[in-house]
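User: Fold this one for me? It's Xanthine dehydrogenase family protein molybdopterin-binding subunit.
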Amino acid sequence: MTLIPATSMGASLTRLDGPAKVTGTARYAFEHPVEHPTYLHPVQATVAHGRVTAMDTSAAGRLDGVVAVLTVFDAPDLADTSDGELSILQDDKVHFRGQLIGAVVAESPEIAREAADLVRVDYREEAHRTELRVDDPRLYAPDTVNGGHPTDTETGDVDAALDDAAVTVDQTYTTPIEHNNPMEPHACVAIWDETPGRPQLTLYDSTQGVHSVRQMLAPLFGLELEQVRVRSPHVGGGFGSKGAPHAHNVLAVLAAQRSGGRPVKFAVTRQQMFSLVGYRPPTIQRVRLGADPDGALTAISHEVVEPTSAVKEYAEQTAVPSRTMYAAPNRRTSHRLVPLDVPVPNWMRAPGECPGMFAGEVAMDELAVACDLDPIEVRIRNEPDVDPESGNPWSGRHLVDCLRTGAQRFGWAERDPTPRNRARGQWWLGTGMASSAYPALSMPGNTARIEYRADGVYAVQIGAADIGTGTWTALTQVAADALGCDTDSVDVQIGDTDLPSASVAGGSSGITSWGTAIVTTARAFRQAHGDKPSTGAHTITEAPENPDADKFAMHSFGAHFVEAQVNRDTGEIRVPRMLGVFSVGRAINAGTLRSQLIGGMTMGLSMALHEESVRDHRFGHVVTQDLAAYHISAHADVHDIEAIWLDEVDEHVNPMGSRGAGEIGIVGAAAAVANAVYHATGIRLRDLPITADRLL
Ligand code: MOS
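Assistant: Here's what I get for Xanthine dehydrogenase family protein molybdopterin-binding subunit.
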């Protein structure tokens, strides 16, 4: 084999897993062929709060083809019940409507479903509360918020600065419950091999991280890590909902313990996802800005109230972006939670930053109007030299470049700032913009192994995940570049706990975390074995901590530009044009990077105009629990979306020079749409989603 110097970094290399996917041969979790499979259908609570007093399984058990029925009264014990979401079927308590309280395992999915319907459940119902109110007496401050951030921050004298400010904005913004809807619903196959004294669990799972699934599930079943193998080669999207195992995984394993060694297949239905796999919690956000007449901020206050589940705390970091975004000398942020009788909220693409920046960036638009300034100019005037929160220099804050580049490309200069002042036929026309920021996170605990094989190919092994983003391909480019070979000479292997430890595909941290491990290992390999290694030569190395992590503030940035049209008669909103300009460090694969960015922007458009899960508080469940009632932006809604990025290399985040790009595209996108709708109509909407009825 000749080693060809890599030219692949930045190239738009077509997805290596593409042919398997489009020919239908890529295996997703549910599709793994196993011997004598059984199929699980869950029994879910039909009350929101209370106790199960009886479960009559006799009719279900009599059905031909039923293998096992599990209830809260007879399910196997878990070894660790400390996780309120995962600890299911261990007692008779019901914490939310839709909670898993039983299962039927049968010879076919149809039999399992029919039998599950035959299980009769009696409850002692208790009063439930599912509605978020800012005056709820149970409001409390969590110890920290998601990501380990402090719950509250206070710098300077915010109240005095607001009192003295020449210009103020004081508004409340709300975002609704939103549900992750990856194309592939959650699914798993659980195989429990009951070797006496040393059982073995194999789980094929649709997950964003096999190693974290293993780490979380092993103690629940009293197993050592070595007794659990999780495999997940292909994943049809996740958006955070597959970032951690959920109760359905536990149910499948409990059922497998009762199925005589037969594999249990559990495909969660679209409807079941609306109560089982997390969701973006709704937010109520009060934002107060104080500024000089020239638009220079003197104070930012961002106070957030959100629900959590009574059974397990989830505290989103919604106000955190306001700590670093702009250079106000006086800043206050806070997070308060209300425990409700609802399923456990969880990560959904840019949890925290996404809803938080919606409020912050609409508020900045309102400040621009109040100061009679261009919204881009108001942001540039508040650009901080260093991170206001840590005082650290930026690894690369190119927000102003993004704003200026975007303004030019979008044709912002010709914009007349007066709202409700342009129309074509029946349509009001407007344009709007917003900034975007997302932290450049890096996760610990990543190890890669590289071996030179007899066929002249480097096997590069790391238990990472490609959830449809193109990670597999990008990591191949990273490995080829670091090894100094062609991408054809690299075989990246991911998605299996038999491969070295890897962190979860979440927080836009994947490429940084896994890529650092691969580059470190490749360098060590070349040092040990040179560029003409012998067959079988191998190296395994753990990624070192980033020495710059505490010295620099590391974030991706972006600027969104949106054109909106609003129908005078019907209020219908169309978004014919979106432009995003991003600062994400070096592009590793231009094609998959662009896809991540426009995917995020599309999801932001969807958030702005459509996405909302409606809870019926009488019964406590989300009623919009399918894609007919839970609306998302479909093809007809998405017109001209363009994402570009600055030509740059970040010297501090990772050895590739890149930053994460999975979430930056959604952050700020909904604010840009709302700001464009304001410019078109003169109607300022502060509650998502923006629907036609509110523009009439
Ligand atoms: Mo993402 S919500 O960090 O998978």
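One thing worth pointing out: The two ends are 69 Å apart (CA to CA).
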